[in-house]
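Lab notes, practical 5.
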Amino acid sequence: MEHRQLGRSGFFVPELSFGTGTFGGKGGLAGWGSTDAAGATRIVDICLEHGITMFDSADIYSGGASEEVLGAAIKGRRDKVLISTKATFRAGAGANDVGSSRFHLTRAVEGALKRLGTDHIDLFQLHGYDAKTPPEEMLSTLDALIRAGKIGYIGVSNFSGWHLMKALACAERYGLPRFVANQTYYSLVGRDYEWELMPLGLDQGVGAVVWSPLGWGRLTGKIRRGKPLPEVSRLHTTADFGPPVDDEHLYRVVDALDAVAEETGKSVPQVALNWLLQRPTIATVVIGARDEKQLKDNLGAVGWSLTADQIKRLDKASAVTLAYPYWHQRQFKERNPFPTRV
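Output from the prediction step:
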């Protein structure tokens, strides 16, 4: 398993991480899976055997049960794993049980540490943008938590480009910690990340931690033209959480994936994940799995590379018309190339 530098930091993470949204299985995430502590322990065993050492969670996953199950699964081997988790979204009924205020972030980290059964979080990310909390308050709070040894590195998730740039400028102005990670949605059927956030990451040294790399279950190889959704699919319960994808566009991407999968002898998910791993800024791709079979298939995404021609064909099949001003900027490649810098 290759390890990659996380943004402009001295921290290295495995190219694949494991997402624990399937742990706990309560509430709106029940459609993802419902792995208990025993099942999670076995998954962690397999991950560690194959070099996946980072596990990603969030306080809202199954109402905190995901972190609790993860904590039980890594008990006695905390020194062998990296923990990534997130907070910002509403985690209670109180007026301050949401956002990135000093009040909420301090309590969110303390709660996560307790549920995980650890004294520190290696990578802590803001799960969403809070426009009501000044960036100085947010960053100074994270600075205090870093100085206290409770978190190591910091990142964001689901931020717009200007949200992230505003925070980075504030950090530079006041000498506060910089965000080095951007946990972002990115897949062959969701390439919006490339429009602004990828050039920003290249310019500012922010590494991508990719979530839902198989497009909310659309690129598992089970969805085909003219066929109904599989009986077991997260799209039955979570499709509304993710962006819509035009059917014809999806089938065009799947057709291209099928062709490349046949050429390489790999599965459709393996090809889709490998494509991501060769994109600029990508530090780690967060994979998930309901069971051992699915996990082991995803592990086959590493240790090989698509050819330049195969990448070009997948790029073409998944391309969409860009929103303004991005389509206009593409016409000025002489001084505004894409990616902006490699």
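Observations recorded by the TA: The chain has one domain: 3-329. The first helix runs from residue 37 to 49.
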